[in-house]
Amino acid sequence: MDINNLSKRAQELWNEWEIRSLILLSLFLQILLIILGNRRKYHTGIVLGGLVWIAYLSADWVTTYALGSVSRSQGGSGTNCINPTPNNIPAFWAPILLVHLGGPDTITAYALEDNELWLRHLLQLAIQASTASYSLFKSWGKDPLIYIAIPIFVAGITKYGDRVLVLWLASSKKFRDIQSEEVDTFQSKFGENFQSPTFVDMSEEDLNEGLKFNKIISEALYLHEAHFLFKMFKIFYADLALSHSSHMASYLILRGKDATDAFKVIEVELGFMYDVLFTKVTGVCSTRTILRSISFLSSTSALVAFSLMVANKCAYTETEVIISYILLGGGVVLEIYGVIMLLLSEWAMFRLSLLLKKPWANAVYKAVHKAIYSDNNKRWERYMCDTT
């Protein structure tokens, strides 16, 4: 075979599969990050750390490059029906890439320094949103498929905006500002509950009553103790000071526990801190629920609408249809997986245990705790290394 013909054929094959391979690689990296991103909380090692690091750095680069390729590909051919239309599938894929840039909930930053780059990500959000909008604009009115991309575009803006927000809140300056506002509130509430300056002789029952842990079911007590220590830890991490009574309270929480129970509380405390600094899983609240609902409903509606359109129209190649199903279906599966992980997280369990006067809540908590959690569950690697 002539070497020139072989080179030409390879170039044609790459031109045909460039965008397809890039967007499938982007989806694969998202799957890898959502599965492994949270595992490094309680597993260490060069292999896992290196794999997550490569995936984290590659994900944004691959997605950005794919978006640029999509914006250059408008107006090509690739139809196979009686009434062919311009190939608008790449423009339809552009908002999906924007969703990928939002990243999974299990990892927003690989290292603390990544949180300081929130302004760069904000600029990237503006640029990539403009790129995706440009791709949609060039194909606007040519194919009804483009209208299905609108909810995906909304989901992409929401998800990437949420990532930028989390990075900003975890950046050193903003984190310290937040804790500076919360430290006075924390200490004032603490002072209201403990009027006596003597803590050494305080019983566990008095401490739980002062911290309002006495109404918490026993299975959830360790969560509330860990959350209390976590709030103190955040203040210390921001290089701020707390009163002596706060220090004594943390001492009293751990004083009566054996080593296993004490480290269990500390593991959960460190897990809370890890989530705040490196993930989007920072609590179950109305804002988080709204953002999650927008992303999930947008992805699901796009998948349903695409299925209905493909059933009545065959203007695209079989390969493009299959890839589109993989991208849309994969996005929905990742959203469902993220919701399940959030609902089974310690944040959700903590929120559930706050429903003190709801018997059903206590029953659900006990059932989930018995089925999912156990004393052998690892929430941290359980050792500290000297880096000096």
UniProtKB/TrEMBL annotation:
The keyword Zinc does not apply. InterPro entries: DUF4220. Residues 53-385 form the DUF4220 domain. The chain crosses the membrane at residues 20-38, 45-67, 145-170, 290-310, 322-344. Keywords: Membrane, Transmembrane, Transmembrane helix. The keyword Hydrolase does not apply. It comes from the Eukaryota. This is DUF4220 domain-containing protein. It comes from Populus trichocarpa.
